What we know:
Elements: E1 10-14, H1 18-30, E2 35-39, E3 57-59, H2 62-66, E4 72-75, H3 82-91, E5 96-99, H4 109-118, E6 123-126, H5 133-143, E7 150-158, H6 184-187, H7 190-199, E8 202-210, E9 222-229, E10 234-240, E11 247-254, E12 257-262, E13 267-272, E14 277-282, H8 290-306, H9 314-333, E15 337-338
Parallel strand pairs: 1-2, 1-4, 2-3, 4-5, 5-6, 7-10
Antiparallel strand pairs: 7-11, 8-9, 8-15, 9-10, 11-12, 12-13, 13-14
Amino acid sequence: MMNKSQNTVKALVVGLGSIGKRHLNNLRALLPQADITVWRQHTRPDDDRTSYPNANRIVYSFKDAMAYRPEVAIIANPAAFHIETGLKLAQEGIPLLIEKPFSNQLDDVEELIHLSASRGQTLMIGYHLRFHPSLVCLKETLENGKIGKVLSVIAEVGQYLPDWRPDTAYTQNVSAQARLGGGVVLELSHELDYARWLMGEVQAVSAQVGKLSDLTMDVEDSADIHLRFAQGGSGNIHLDMLQRALTRTCKLIGTDGTLTWDGISNSVRFYSASDHAWQDIFPARPMDRNDMYRQEIRHFLECVQTGARPVVTGEDGLQVLKVALAVKESARLQRTIFL
């Protein structure tokens, strides 16, 4: 645990892609006096303090990163390197916020979880939609029993991949490269995370996954997934990198009504079976998407400071990864996979 003001913490950000830059900038905004080191794997032409003024320094080796004695770390390099990096940092006693997905394979994931737990170190996975205000409202309304017994969840997310990060070529991004842990199933695994958050553990998975577009990449760009939950109920989830109109929605069907969430308009609606009417329980309102990321970092730092359990634990990240890999296995074998 940190025993001093968060504002003077020594922080490490691993990776400086789009999400690494976001975390760097948010850390600086939240902790103006923090000492922030960025560790990236290779030098780039723009690697200097004038290009990244929110970093105190940029280093290119684990040894150099450790020379500045970081007290917390955010791992935002490609998913294929999360566990290797995390094990090194956990061995040094450093609490970790690891970007989603936890990894692109199961190797050594449990070892990292056990290592962090054995040392009492915070380990949090970066599923930032857990901090989306209207999705939180959906979760709270569900737990209040407003729609009775939940029978089914239907979720969809889609956006054209070249529009994700318009300032960079999509072919160079993690999302388009299998070796780095890309592909729609892992990159958009937020839906798998919140489906489990809402409905409980996944018992079985069947899926169709493929590449439907002519985008230049060696990963899947669409997935249609059917889930069965251990506590009862089913789920249908559609993920794609194809839709030109950004969409992110969820519907929960219950015995006493229906809840719908729109993550783009930031709204939740409720249909009452007894009243036969819809009502807005979280009316659509503008939101700054970056607020979720700031809340995520703030929560992580509070957990480090107090020892509280993170909203998204390493165990949560592992279970989502198991579901994601089961999706791929189901599509490959053309059969249901039981977890």
